[in-house]
Amino acid sequence: MEKWANMKLSWQWFHRLGSPRWFYQKTSAWLPWLGAAALLLLAVGCTWGLGFAPQDAKQGNSYRIIYIHVPAAFLALAGYYIMAICGAIGLIWKMKLSFVVMRAAAPIGAVLTFVALLTGAVWGKPTWGTYWVWDARITSMLILLFLYLGVMALSGAFSRELSGDKASALLALVGTVNIPIIYKSVDWWFTLHQPATLKLTQASTIDPSMFYPLITMIAGFYLFYAWVLILHTRGLILQREWRTQWVRELLGQSAPAAKA
Amino acid sequence: MQSESVGDGRKRIAEPVLRPAVPAAAPGFFTLFRTELTLAVRRRSDIVNPLLFFVTVLALMPIGIGPEPEMLSRMAAGLIWVMALLSTLLSQESLFRSDYEDGSLEQLALQSQPLYFPVLAKVLVHWLVTGVPLAVLSPLLGMMLNLGQAGYWPLLLSLVLGTASLSLIGAVGAALTVALRRPGLLLALIIMPLYVPVLIFGTGTVQAALDGYGYGPQLAILGAILAAAAALAPLAAAGAIRISLEN
Amino acid sequence: MQFQFENFASFLAMNGHGPYVWFSYGVTIAVMAALVLVPVLRQRQMREAFRRQLRQEQARRRSEIARAASETAAAD
């Protein structure tokens, strides 16, 4: 009996986390710090990467795009897993908040995938002489973008919100199982068709003077992602809980002079 | 209905039969499979239309890109594979639709038996009536598109294995969108990216044979994908059906 | 660690790669700013919509009270 009570106690935070209201109120305090830290890291990383990191011997200054391309690509992929994990939590524990986070993660991930694709294409012009190459990584990124768009389209297609939540969570999970297979197969496909001129993508050891700003940028992107994810989730929470008492109090409380 | 005149003219009064709402024994896999197959064979247009689509669009290809034999032979395997993918996808929309609309899907879901086997039976039938005919027809189209002779068998074999995976993966999408009014494009949008590995190894099989290598490894990978899809896709589709039924 | 460019103009030019680099960074910054601004603006919009609704409700209530008062006055 006692053991059971203890277990309940230890799970309390989990259930509280599932309450949109608790999440909204708790994150209010975190947001400024998270945002400030993210922007600071991004500013430092950008300045470092753009102005102070040495020039690349082969690619010249165009390589500086790496400082946004690689972090964006990192988070595009990580974002898909975050989305799918949130969907899984929602499906298993029937947690409302988890679905909200999943829905918030989808457009953010799609935008970051788009950024990775765009910067990759622009980087390709001075490096390969053309904007678009069916390179293994670019192709995988493109498919990842389609996966994101599929989840977004499906989540919006249902008239009943919960059905959209569950259906898109399931699709995200199916996509998660597929992503490694897709990446591997695209890799294989690319080595099959790789023309001799495109050997520039060879991963080489990167000099510390170039690596530290990259790490800074990756950390900055992660913090930025967390910040934006919380912001979007809060927006969706307000939208969904529009009719509840606490949202009405929250929105009304800062109204100046609402006296009769 | 129960009262029928018996041979000797006596009218037998119907005995009140209490029918259980759910059949006592859920229909087994083979019963379901046979029923589905009979139904599919009866709806002849469901078999013929994807094939016609496949052939028609492939006939348009040389008109679009030009009749040069060399170019066609380079593109043949890819074109045939992409078209097989599309016609599988287009025929998949109706996989659960009629069962959803007449309520038999709900009845299946209410039974204690897991949905895995009913889904598998339906997908198997779908593959038999769309994938297999496409594969059988493919060497003919390969010939018309000037595919090298070495590619015929690999094309046929890879399509047989590959379309089974396509049917299985597509079933998940069909189950997810069955409750929507017009799922066509959405189904394509959510399922296409998941088809990529099958497409890559399908065309890879043919390409390897055309280049004079053995194509066993590619076929083996297609087989592995099929095994994984057969194990997992019906589970996901079953979950998706339950979600769709709640809507 | 030192600044890799002689002056600001060469920093902008980046040995001819300037347009690619600056375009990439510009688009990324714009897109990321949009990611932050969209929920913030939406929240502000909701807040305003809510206040408008609140004001309307209050106005309605006030006019109802006034009407009730005038009706009782007329009845007297």
From TrEMBL, chain C:
The chain crosses the membrane at residues 20-41. The keyword Coiled coil does not apply. It is a single-pass membrane protein. Its main location: membrane. Residues 56-65 have a biased composition (Basic and acidic residues). It is found in: Cell inner membrane. The keyword Transmembrane applies. Keywords: Cell inner membrane, Cell membrane, Cytochrome c-type biogenesis, Membrane, Transmembrane, Transmembrane helix, Transport. Residues 56-76 are annotated as: Disordered. InterPro entries: Haem_export_protD_CcmD, Heme_exporter_D. Residues 66-76 have a biased composition (Low complexity). It holds the Pfam family CcmD. Required for the export of heme to the periplasm for the biogenesis of c-type cytochromes. Belongs to the CcmD/CycX/HelD family. NCBIfam families: cytochro_ccmD. This is Heme exporter protein D. It comes from Microbulbifer harenosus. The gene is ccmD.
